[in-house]
Amino acid sequence: MIKPIELVIFDCDGVLVDSEVIAVRVLVRLGEEYGWPLTEAEAIERFVGRSEAVNNALVAERLGAEVAAVWGKRFVELHTEAVDAGLTPVDGLPEALAAITLPTCVASSGTHEKMRHTLGRTGLHDRFAGRIFSATEVGRGKPAPDLFLHAARSMGVDPAACVVVEDSRPGVEAARAAGMRALGYAGGVTAAERLAGPGTVVFHDMRELPGLIAAGSVHQG
Question: What's the pTM?
Fold first, then answer.
């Protein structure tokens, strides 16, 4: 028997706020500046959906610790500038949130500081205040299940009764590893085929989300 859904866990970047496009653009620019030529596809494959610590380690392995430290600071600076210049919620997200009646929370690879900025700029932070979880709170980031299990435990919900809304390959892999259902949003930077897999429904328009959640919440198997 499949448990009814009791909690919707949202990723942040690329699911709530349209920031992954910004991140990819910044990564490509930094690659040019520091001698690591990256296409957008490579930036998505290597960096999107992973924690700041993992990404910094990836840069350090390629370019050295000193460059990685500068890269990390520059990323924050450039990302912040772009967010302030015009970050918006993901298309269709406000309508979707208005139609979802189940409890919700956020579980992101980003830091709390970053989420305060991005969710704050789009007017979403207050909506999730007190229910925002960061990979900095757990030992391993996505694709490990730690963050989603931490969010479910903090919200008092069985992992089997959770559904995760994700837009990255590491994110949907983390949801599966946590024993949760996944809804893979392919309307952003990650291709649908990279999100597809067991226990995962891939969708392209955020306005579809309430219906998908409702279908899952009443499905008893």
Answer: 0.88
